[in-house]
# Entry
Amino acid sequence: MAAASLSRVSEPNRDNRDGPLAEADSLRGLAVKNIDKRFGTVQAVKNVSLDVHAGEFFTLLGPSGCGKTTLLRMVAGLELPDNGQVLLGDEDITSLPASKRLVNTVFQSYALFPHLSIFENVAFGLRSRKISQNEVKSRVNRRLEMLGLEEMADRYPHQLSGGQQQRVALARALVNEPKVLLLDEPMSALDARLRSQVQVELRRLQRKLGQTFILVTHDQAEALVVSDRIAVMNEGEIIQHGSPKEVYEQPKNRFVAEFLGAANLIEGQYVNGRLETGIGSFDLQQPPPWDHGTVAIRPERIQVANQPPQQNGVKATLREAIYRGTNVDLWLEPGPLRVRTAAYHNYEPGEEIWLELPQEGLVILDE
Amino acid sequence: MLVWYGELTTQRNLARRGLGYLGPGILWLLVFLVLPGLVLILVSFITRGGYGQLVWDFTFENYKRFLGFSVFGWTADYFIIMWRSVWVACMSTLICVILSYPLAFFICSRPEKKRYLWLTLIIVPFWTNMVIRTYAWLLILAPDMPLAQLASFLKLIPPDTPLYPSAFAVYMGMVSIFLPFVTLPLYSSVERLDWSLVEAAQDLYASRVRVFTQAILPQTLPGLTVGIILVFVPTMGMFVVPNLLGGSKYMLVGNLIQQQFGPSRDWPFGAAISMALMVLTMISLQLYRRRSKEVEII
# Structure
């Protein structure tokens, strides 16, 4: 069995090349089924199932300690699940050791080998698989070039900047042409400016290669920028998954609404086709599944008006205006309501203004 | 004038104070290391008198004799002893290293509180004098003890004989005395091991051997080097263990030197062998240094 999987390792593309079965395999990508993982008394991952399509940029988003890294490590083979399965294409890889999986990881600390040159770091996986010297050379050089590291080949990790080290870690994983690339908070060590630049680069790289990427992050802005799909995790469970637009605009519950960006959460009773709340009564796009519950509205969806709006109006007093350059954040009573609006108007605390909470901006949460 | 840790002072003042701190240490080394060393070099070039007294005649005779030339022609005796000493030191060090790796990882895998218990257990033998511990081996290896009984049962030795003097007994003695000198520094390296490198190696398809040589060995090399030096150097010159457990058939250079300064009363020859031992130890360490640099680069 070891020999069989090793031969697969040395020809990573063979499965995708021919036959209808191989085609289905390439579409299936990676699946996680009913995974449980417990550390002592802590249930790190609770019955999680996921389907990651081939060629997709998938993100596990959640606060620290939500189990997202544990889930990633089980996909990488660095942790064994208590229950459930990990499927790569058609193959059950649940108990396959990391060294036999066609999956590579970019570690949070990068984990570059300090005693090896950049070239040798990138060549590491190929050398493990005893690939010929010529092929190693050409494949490593191609990756180094792709990531703009060709000048660094003879240097050592400690001589590189954080951003360069991160690219080496990426090259080291990608050179093996893994079926799935796992990225464990790869940008957490970069400064904010570089991070937003790397996010865009990473997204472009993934689109260009068409490879399956799974990213773990706690940074919601990062998740929105890079992902095709996002799974939001909390306390070991997946709360919601969908495209960035879906999870941002249609959050399922309070947690998702608040974790992804800012949200105004308004509690109320649904009476006679209207939502009666402490700050006013509102029309909703559809009746909610509850009598008493919460709706959410993003600060940028609330409109500021000079006169009473025709629908869903609230008269509010400005408490604080925070100038942010691209916009102004207003904090208003009653509420407190948070409104994000264009910066061309000068707002004075104490000012009374009308707000409109449009129907299509009011998201009905689960409870 | 300059500021040194928030204090206004002068270069000269600092130099004077530095000398004050370093002085005692330097004096100690001068009196107890450099001076005796020089005397040893001097003595190795003079002649032994008929009654063992030192006769101040300059000669290379002691070194020639050590290289095997005597009035009776050339013998390989001293070479054999020298080679055996290097071999025993290398093997003892190797056995200590092989035993220490699992031990260090085992202790590191214990919960923090229990680790100190294990470390204490490893240090406990130091509370007893080395000579006493070596005598204890005589008892353990005695004919009526289980080890010798087992060996005679397996027909490895004739019945009712002890397991000493033998090479086996020498290794037992050496390893039991020097094991902590490798385990402790190695433990401190293993404790600080960056496991993400091990995981990265596994993730990059490395075999177990490759994980060890590429992810663990380079990280533990500092501790390993300290351990190897701490074991290799003293085992090269050790005489208590080979004296008691090796007997006259398994003589090491330590015994040879001790013999010259003791029963034979041939100080010049003893000094010459000591010099040879020192040179040989330095060469060995130099070879190791070069080799370990290669490991780092592989």
In short: Chain B has a mean pLDDT of 88. Chain B has twelve helices and six strands.
